[in-house]
Write a structure and sequence with these properties.
Layout (H helix, E strand, L loop, with lengths): L1 E5 L3 H13 L2 E6 L10 E4 L5 H8 L4 E4 L6 H9 L8 H8 L1 H11 L6 E4 L2 H10 L4 E4 L10 E4 L14 E5 L3 E11 L5 E3 L3 E6 L2 E7 L6 H17 L4 E10 L4 E7 L9 H4 L4 H9 L13 E8 L11 H7 L4 E4 L9 E9 L2 H16 L1
Parallel strand pairs: 1-2, 1-4, 2-3
Antiparallel strand pairs: 5-8, 6-7, 6-8, 9-10, 9-11, 9-13, 11-12, 12-15, 13-14, 15-17, 16-17
Bound molecules: adenosine-5'-diphosphate.
């Protein structure tokens, strides 16, 4: 079997070892020959161009994704040409368009922040009035890592964004922490659910993940699991689905957004779970039996490497990080360091969460300084 991945970022890169282990051929349509997933890039081209994507898809059995930026018309063209697209366009739309997602969650009765689609400053003003004077405004499409997300307290604070269409306004949720529930679903309907994790964000970017989410009530665990299970089925997801959640002080669980691909909140599974999200994604899109999603260690801590050393020479830091933290698992994405850019992550596992967090942070610090 040959899986085609659109997009050559680190998610495609981390699918490669899983594919090799399972004897699956993997081909990547990369943005450039130097993409993070370059070892598997078989074609270089524009993922928004239907002809380019169709030509790539002809050589594979199933098409899946490293990101959700392939336009709907390109996805539909693939389906019309008889290509197996997993997840399909209908499902993916809910990860591409935050307004579509909010409407669908409302229809399904899934808990989420109070929200409204707003067309102009007057609309935003009205929402601010109903939401206690503060809101989070989001561009429905194209946002990532905090781009396209803004906290506002004034009706005109998003005027520069209205030109591209309506915006999503949400209540500013006073959450206690952020959680993520990762699941995988295969076309025949089986679902595998990993342990619920805690994610720590800074400036809209994921920094750290603790698995399982520490000090979590059985009720929160159950609700998160049910939400993810419901969404995977209702949206007909194939592959990995990450459900980003807010947990409030009173233990409500609200859906923030979805990703339908391996996700930063699941990187810990490479070293900390019986089946990694990358292996599971390949199994799911090929409609193979899913692997066991259980944790292999009591605790896993994943820390992102954001930006790298100031002089850009990451290679020079690697040996001392390895020497200082021999049990930490380094994952480097082959990307040039730039301020704030995700260029790798480190996972540590063990019987004690604090020890795991310490080891992963220490390795990242040594890679960065
Ligand atoms: P992105 O598409 O960039 O990942 P998100 O919608 O996940 O955007 O928002 C990025 C971060 O902003 C979230 O992880 C969270 O920390 C914060 N955030 C988003 N929506 C809200 C909200 N309604 N209330 C409070 N914080 C929010």
């Amino acid at each position: 079997m040959r899986v085609g991945v659109i997009g050559g970022g680190q998610l495609a890169r981390m699918m490669v070892p899983a594919a090799v282990e399972l004897g699956i051929d993997i081909a990547v349509l990369g943005e450039s020959a130097e993409s993070s997933a370059r070892i598997a890039v078989t074609a270089v081209g524009d993922h928004t161009d239907a002809a380019t994507v169709l030509a790539f898809a002809r050589g594979v059995d199933v098409v899946t994704f490293d990101h959700e930026h392939v336009p709907q018309q390109v996805l539909r063209a693939l389906v019309d040409a008889g290509v197996a697209v997993r997840p399909g366009p209908e499902a993916l739309l809910h990860a591409q368009d935050k307004l579509v997602l909010r409407e669908r969650l409302a229809a399904l009765g899934v808990p989420q922040p109070a929200w409204a689609g707003v067309e102009d400053a007057a609309g935003l003003g009205a929402f601010l009035g109903s939401a206690g004077g503060a809101a989070v405004v989001k561009t429905p499409r194209g946002g990532y890592d905090g781009h396209g997300v803004r906290v506002v307290r004034e009706a005109h604070a998003a005027d520069d964004w209205f030109a591209d269409g309506p915006l999503l306004a949400e209540e500013l949720v006073p959450f206690r922490r952020e959680l993520a529930q990762l699941v995988a679903r295969r076309p025949s309907g089986d679902v595998a659910v990993w342990p619920l994790v805690e994610t720590v964000q800074g400036d809209g970017v994921c920094r750290e993940v603790f698995a399982p989410a520490p000090r979590t009530s059985a009720r929160v665990e159950r609700v998160a699991r049910e939400i993810a299970h419901t969404l995977a089925g209702a949206l007909d997801v194939t592959g990995v689905l990450a459900v980003e959640l807010f947990e409030t002080e009173d233990e409500r669980v609200l859906v923030n957004e979805l990703a339908m691909r391996p996700h930063n909140s699941g990187h810990w599974t490479i070293d900390g779970a019986v089946t990694s999200q990358f292996e599971q994604h390949l199994r799911a899109v090929l409609d193979l039996p899913l692997g066991d999603p259980s944790a292999r260690a009591p605790w896993s801590a994943m820390v992102n490497l954001l930006g790298g050393p100031a002089d850009g020479d990451l290679d020079a830091r690697v040996p001392r990080a390895m020497a200082d933290q021999p049990a930490a698992k380094l994952h480097l994405y082959g990307k040039a360091p730039r301020p704030g850019r995700k260029i790798g992550h480190v996972t540590a596992t063990g019987d004690d969460l604090d020890d795991a967090v310490y080891a992963a942070r220490a390795a990242v610090t040594l890679l960065q300084d």
